[in-house]
Design brief:
There is one protein chain. The protein is mainly beta and 188 residues long. It has one domain: Porin (Beta Barrel), CATH 2.40.160. 12% of the residues lie in helices and 68% in strands. The chain has 2 helices and 8 strands; from the N terminus they run αβββββαβββ. It has an 8-stranded antiparallel β-barrel. β4 (97-113) and β5 form a beta hairpin. The radius of gyration is 22 Å and the shape is elongated.
Length: 188
């Protein structure tokens, strides 16, 4: 009976330890997400009245990164992505169309609780805005960005849900962009 009890506890311990480190998959990874972007624009016109509007659209992103996976239960990664936030048109301003795309790089830290991970990320974004108001909003520059999210990882495949916040400052306009997305990643 003692041998059976010892065998049971040994198997249970090995199962728990592998469950505790699930999701700690190190190496390069790729993925993609579909999301919803919410855009808030405030244009500070000098001679005309100020213009404020917000709109939303569907967007997508593709990303790649490297997870170092050096510490049990914690992941540290570097991740870069291309994001298309979709387009917007303000009803209050005739003929105004805005399209925003971005490239970004983030440092990502994740705490794994079994196959579930909670992560935060901070980094730099290089964005490009194309608009029909060429003298005010056509810009390309870089700013800080951050985000939070959850992932569920099974072996080398993960399902991710995340929220990212981007704030773009142009001379005559302030642009706040929120991006909520759900996607998959694969570690190889």
């Amino acid at each position: 009976m003692k041998k059976l009890t010892a065998l049971f506890f040994t198997v249970a311990f090995l199962s728990i330890s592998s469950f505790a480190t699930a999701g700690n998959e190190g190496g390069p990874y790729i993925g993609g997400s579909l999301g919803y972007s919410s855009l808030d624009v405030a244009i500070n016109a000098i001679e005309e009245e100020d213009v404020n509007f917000d709109d939303d659209d569907m967007g997508f992103k593709v990303f790649a990164g490297y997870n170092f996976g050096l510490v049990p239960m914690f992941d540290f990664a570097i991740e870069g992505s291309y994001v298309d936030f979709g387009g917007t048109a303000a009803d209050a301003i005739p003929d105004l169309d805005i399209d925003i795309t971005a490239y970004d790089i983030f440092g990502v830290a994740c705490y794994n609780i079994g196959p579930v991970g909670i992560f935060g990320k901070a980094g730099h974004v290089w964005w490009e805005i194309d608009s029909s108001i060429s003298d005010v909003l056509d810009e390309s520059s870089g700013d800080m960005a951050y985000g939070i999210g959850l992932k569920f990882q099974f072996n080398s495949v993960a399902v991710r849900a995340e929220y990212e916040r981007f704030k773009f400052d142009i001379d005559d306009a302030d642009i706040d962009l929120d991006f909520v997305s759900v996607g998959f990643s694969w570690t190889f």
